[in-house]
Amino acid sequence: MTENEYRELVDFLGRQFEAIDERFGAVAQRFDAMDARFEALERRVEDGFREVLGHLEAIYRALERLEQEYQAVVQALRRIEAQLADERGRRELLERGVAELRARLAALEARIEDLEQRLRE
Question: What is the distance between the alpha carbons of residues 65 and 62, in angstroms, rounded to a whole number?
Answer without folding.
Answer: 5
